[in-house]
Amino acid sequence: MVASAARVLFDRINWYSRIAAGRARFTARAALGSVAATLVTPEVLLLDCPDGDEASGLFSEAAAVVGALAHVEHWPTLYAGLRVDFREHGLYYDSAAGPNWWEYYFEPVAIGTSGHARTVADWEHDAFAHAVELRMQRVEAARLVKRYVVPKASIGQKVDAFWREHVGDVFTVGVHYRGTDKWEGAPVVPFDAMAAAVTEATSGRPEWKVVVATDEQPFLD
Q: How far apart are CA 202 and CA 171, in angstroms?
């Protein structure tokens, strides 16, 4: 138990160290400011996803995409464009579905001009996600998502079909309860607290439903 806790602490410190180093590199590069066009050849960023023990879930990868979009927009003299290329690895890769798993779910993110392309380092990927999860205002994230992150039509059709079959026009409360892998980053929310929130949200309504997204079978039970 002690060894496991120490390992978690070490990993967390290492992760934050990478983020701090990444932000310092971003700052140094951005310091070129108005003279960047003459000192730096604008490059196209290729956003890849980490693999193996560093692999992230879909939300973290989407956050990295949004963070990269914000960064490229903010420094147009430093970047000629951005392409999301989650190629042939990561948690969602399926060789039968295609080489770039981002495009299993979303339309391609390929903005800007062609030119020198550079694959982002792991520290950049983490820094992009970190910026979205901890600093970016929701209205800014929503703007970027609306403009660039377009779900595939087939995904929208599946969502609509699910909603018609299971929900319809009934007042519905959505509950996302994430356990298992989140115990190290946030306190565990008691089941009773979630039930109380649903009770409050449905108070006075004669008919209602709950849609639950969770990785905790005991919570669903």
A: 8
Q: Please tell me the distance from the alpha carbon of residue 117 to that of residue 153, in angstroms, as a whole number.
A: 29
Outline where the chain has alpha helix (H). 2-30, 36-39, 58-74, 102-105, 122-134, 138-148, 153-166, 191-201, 217-220
Least Cα distance to 75 among 130, 128, 34 occurs for 34
Question: How far apart, in whole angstroms, are the C-alpha atoms of residue 58 and residue 66?
Answer: 12
SS3 172: strand
Give the span between the Cα atoms of 178 and 79, in whole angstroms: 36
Which residue in 80, 16, 9 sits closest to 46, CA to CA?
A: 80
Residues 6+ positions from 195 with CB-CB distance below 8 Å: none
Residue with token string 């934050």: 16
Tokens coding 29: 């590069």
Q: Per residue of the chain (221 residues), what is the pLDDT tens digit?
A: 444 445 444 555 555 566 566 566 656 555 555 555 556 688 999 999 999 888 988 989 999 999 999 999 999 888 999 999 999 999 999 999 999 999 999 999 999 877 789 999 989 999 999 999 889 999 999 999 999 999 999 999 999 999 999 999 999 999 999 876 666 667 788 999 999 999 999 999 999 999 999 988 999 99
Name residue 89's amino acid.
H
